[in-house]
Amino acid sequence: MRAVIVLPLLLLNIHHVTSAPKGVTASLEAKWSMTPFLLETSEFIGEDGNEKFWQFVDTVKELTVYKRGESVRSYYNLIIKKAGQFLTDLQVNLLKFALALRTCSPAIHASQQIAGDEPPPEACPAFVSIHGQHTCSTKDVKKLLRAAAGRPKPYLYKNDHTYPGVNKTDVPVVILYAEIGTKKFTSFHKILSEKAQEGTLVYVLRHFVADPKPQKMLLSGYGVELAIKSTEYKAVDDTKVKDSKTVINTEDEDNDEVQGFFFGTLKKSHPDLEEQLVELRKHLLESTNDMAPLKVWEMQDLSFQAAARIMSMPKFDALKLMRDLSQNFPSKARSLTRVAVKQEMRKEIEENQKHLSETIGVHPGDGELFINGLHIDLDTHNPFSILDILRGEARVLEGLHNLGIKGEHQGKLLRLPVNAVDDSYALDIRHPAIMWINDIENDPVYRNWPAGVQELLRATFPGVIRQIRRNFFNLVLFLDPVQEESVELVKLAELFYKHKIPLRIGFVFVVNTKDEIDGFSDAGVGFYRLLNYIADEYDLSQALMSMVSLYNKVDVGETLSVDTLSAYLKRKFPKANAERILGVESEYDDKRKDGALFYKKSGLSALPLALFNGVPLSPDEMDPEELETIILQRIMDTTTAFQRAVFMGQLTEGSDVVDYLMEQANVVPRMNPLILGTDQKYLDFTATPVVDDWEDTTMFSFLDTRDKTAVMAKRMKYFTNSDEDGMTTVTMWIAADLERASGRKLLLNALKHMKSSPGVRVGVIDNPSGKPIEDNTVLYRAIWASFLTQKNKATAEFVQKLLKEESSQLLQQGTKIKDLLIQGMDVDAFEKKFNTLEVDFIRSQQLFCQDVLKLSPGERAVISNGRILGLFEEQEEFTVEDFHLLEKITLSGSAEKVKARVKQMGMKPKHASDLVMKVDALLSAAPKGEVRRDVHFIKDSHSMLHLSPRENEVFYDVVAIVDPLTREAQKMSSLLIVLSQVVNVRLQVFMNCRAKLSEMPLKSFYRFVLESDVTFLANDTVSAGPVARFMELPESPLLTLNMITPESWMVQAVRSPHDLDNIHLQEVSGVVTAEYELEHLLLEGHCFDLSTGQPPRGLQFTLGMSRDLLMYDTIVMANLGYFQLKANPGAWILRLREGRSEDIYQVVTHDGTDSPADAGDVRVVLNSFHSKIIKVRVQKKAEKINEDLLSETSESKGIWDSIASVWGTFEKSITGGGSKKDDGEKRKEDVLNIFSVASGHLYERFLRIMMLSVLRHTKTPVKFWFLKNYLSPSFKETISYMAESYGFQYELVQYKWPRWLHQQTEKQRIIWGYKILFLDVLFPLAVDKIIFVDADQIVRADLKELRDLDLEGAPYGYTPFCDSRREMEGYRFWKTGYWASHLGHRKYHISALYVVDLKKFRKIAAGDRLRGQYQALSQDPNSLSNLDQDLPNNMIHQVAIKSLPQEWLWCETWCDNVSKVKAKTIDLCNNPKTKEPKLMAAARIVPEWVEYDKEIKQLLRQVQEQGDPAKEKQTPTPSQHKKVDNLRDEL
Questions:
Q1: What interhelical angle do 1427-1434 and 1406-1418 show, nearest 10?
Q2: Does the CA dihedral 802-808-812-814 come out positive or negative?
Q3: E strands of 849-943, at which residues?
Q4: Three-state SS for 145?
Q5: Measuring CA to CA, which residue among 1308, 1251, 1248 is closest to residue 1278?
Q6: How many CB atoms neighbour CB 268 within 10 A?
Q7: Which of 381, 440, 833, 1146 falls 20 to 30 Å from 949 in CA-CA distance?
């Protein structure tokens, strides 16, 4: 009641002053046009598989006809409805989220770009390209197909949509460029899909919208920050700006509470008072937006106070409050200081924090997010990658849900570690067939070595192999003594032995296994017998020496012969009886067959072969010259694993090292690449079909693959050998034609294995060679009849009898099945069943083999817990040993762990066994991600927000650990709100507060732009898109706007009249709008020289499309061989740049690209908002092996085309013609290259004046280079006019801060970083010298003097700080402390003006050294306080600085007035004593500054009067850009 009385009183007091709300909005648009929702939906569905994509395409064939009559909203709903036929409810929600994010838009635009490259025929709504020839008419397809074979096939990309027809390689490829859902598409699709099904062509579809909508799309998935700037030095321009008339809707701001009033609720209950309520809210806000700084003691507890405030709210509101507090913290801080914090909350938070730091290493204040236990690092993940994770998880979660696994069991099964043992499987080397030459543990040679495993932990010099008396390292060589390659390997083994390398060496000799054989006719057998003789008479080490001396007698290129053997025997052992040793009746023939048998059973590849600790070396590692290095490297690598085992206590003094090695998870009884391969396919058992009928083959044929699989699983019958608990862990299905010997053998082997192995069951699927009829299914029907009528044991015996070869011979001779029955079978029941069985269900099985297992009739496959091992060759045998291996691998994967969990659920054995098979298949098929963490808390009543999931639906388990007042909370709070709208979540948010804060935890306002669904306006049209809105900001502080985008995005401001670097709302009426554009998606990569392993510094790459190969280019850095290229969605070609790069180097292999690894042209498709990172390996050409890229004769070539370059000189055309002149035509021009950076309108005003002062004092042509990243739209619009008026050239360079280099968060520091860190890659190699001039400098001399100054071998020259103004002595920080001791007698230099000799700079890798030192120092937030200046001064000992004469830089703060007369440049340094604003200082110190300022203002006024230039003519760009942009406009 009280509120009702108070309200009118308060409302009376407010005077009606309505003013337009003030605020800031920021939006980000794509560079390309809006892509249709229908196409994006098809791409989304296509990610689930090609089959679904085409089914969807068929369903929406002519959907666009509805576009005309319906509103946009109902058309969108129609698309969602159609998609719903192929997606589950959860996937539909993810689809809506994907459409709101426009996540598939780049894929559509990439297709569009490829179509534009074709190019499309004029006025064509759709067209086909047949081996390079185009037509818009369906009638011409036949004609073009006829001659297609003579033309080369088109290039197909990995993610092209190929119609699932008959796969043939020798037919023409037809690419259809069309828009799904249109009439024209349907007419083409009908013809092409029919022909593809017949197998007469390959049909590929690429999206192509003939006339795209002109409007741009607004993107989301990024953050916008308004940081509060320090106003210690006033740096705001006083030029007035016209205010925008933008109006912002503020509906969504009403839910929050202001000083105890909930305005959303009040408006609902008092609709008549709406206007006054708005005023009251504004009044209260203005009184609370108190930005007066807090005292230190008021700040201490803010984090806990924020948490207490959040915890006091109802659940969903609590998240919104967390978002509000973190994103608007500067204006909420004061109200938080009044919140009381309960003691129990504080105590609980501390207990949980202690537990978290011990279990998962999370400390107070850290922000971490876990989805189903997967750690989501918010620094590297963005909404696009999180959506991918949600989709991947959806498959597993829905699968478990469909299999009836709910609640707690879901989380437990998900977190099972699925052992994906890598490719390095090992063979058990404890085998009697191995002849060990030495034994480190027992041989007297090694008796002086220490024997303790603890010795491994003793420190040694790097690269030293520890000599310990244990068999840590074992090398087994499989050799055929007669092979030429064996010679070198034996010599190598002796070398290791002689040098006392701690390596136990064993041989397995694979020789002839015939019983009666003469050593005088078979050299291999003779060798083996001779060796045994020597080992018996003397010892094994003597045998090794003899092998070597024997092989020394063999000439290079020859093989061991019997004569060599006999001669050796006679010479060395004259008394020995050769006949007794080598002859047929030899006494030294023991175990001769064991080696060959062991080799055969092991399943290893071709001889010679080596195992290191059981792991086979690959054939290319077997080269004797390489092998020595490889073995030593393996010893070093394995040492660390042993050290870990000793440290963790897994390997103790009592352990037998070889036993320990052979008990690891990767040890297998035999090698079979089919079983151990990493490319594994699984059946999907998660469907629940409406019918489970396989007797009706027609019905069965209409089911999709998942439903067919589910029917098979339901109707399958098994031979079982259960565990003692009645369950089986491994289920094998055998698909074969039992009328063939190979099929019978396969099943027989499976049954033999099952008999000896409890916990296995075997099911059989018939896949007859012809159409199933009674005659070709006799055996299978007999098995099935027996399943249906007999007991398990009798069936198994009967079937084993049936499968034997003698039984099938009897059947062929006319014996009846009933004559083969065995005792204990119910004969009548069997006969009745056998005689009445139809073959329809076998037809269904054959269909299953064909459609799901992809087998032709008669082919065989083995399926183990859903994993398909298929397509055996007719002669290939799958032995009992292979089944044994398959079982071991299946069990060690996840089957055993799944069984343990399923057992806890307490269900019937048959049902439980089915579930183990299905869950194992589901979990193993899921892509192997990182380990899932189990995050739990000790207590959760006072420090945790809980959101419970909706009942009986799939849910995601989300755990967030966050301090509500951190940058992580600003992003995470928005993310969690959207996440909970998109999917069903069980959410836990732990308040990970920091205690005793000493400064404001957040100094910025923040918005995260993200929506859970496409939004529509009241009139059912789609809204322009998501925007970051900042309303109700305090008006007093000075703000700077930062866009925080995903790693690979390069954005730029394209429209805003306001100074986005200095937003001061007191001086603005209305709204400050900032419109940004996603200008480029980056293609990043790492490049190494294959022969040296080092990055090829100075190597240049170019990126283009097939019609214009040179659109952007870049230089490779030495740090990590990193390079980056600007691109956009589309198919790109990466090449080495013409000139020295291409002359000296060639591309050898590449990785992460879209062309085969050895293709010369590197093709890369950018089709998503994700980062694209490739690896390129290059090599010098043979004849250029001694040339250096950065040698003095470096190329004088090329303007970097990655950059909008404009030549303002009159003799060149405005469009930048001439940026691609030939080398001959382009002699080195005498140009002054000046580099500068500026941000904010004031510094841009200074920059123009600096440029004018440079031009006034030189006759040399000037080219200015500006960092594009931070220039305002107005500067970019007007610079071309200035270039035209004053006759200079300019180029805008940009570079994205690499992700691996420590990021700065403050804009000013980022700009400082750009001044110094990327000098070697910002400019083309043709630029030899560049002079950096600060924007706030005025030049009074000819900078040509500075350019031509001799730097005496230093890479750059800086001016030292002046010492002459005595009263400033107290501010000269470099005279004391760290700097005084570090610099010694050297001077501290100022970074306002410096000249760089880029050739020298690159040659000594100065850029890489600077980045390396920056990386080391910048981890400490207190170091490098003036980054651009401290870094070169700190590196003065590694990268020398030439001190420029003092007159090159005069600034009033540090230099006395006397020296001003000689000053060549004047810098407007900040004065720490007076803190005088820049504008006042400029006019006072430099008289000509005012004149320059007037002149430029006059020029800008003329530009303005020419009628708003931005609309009529865009900033001119170089010709190649022009082309690309026009091309984009056409799309």
A1: 110
A2: negative
A3: 861-864, 867-870
A4: helix
A5: 1248
A6: 10
A7: 381
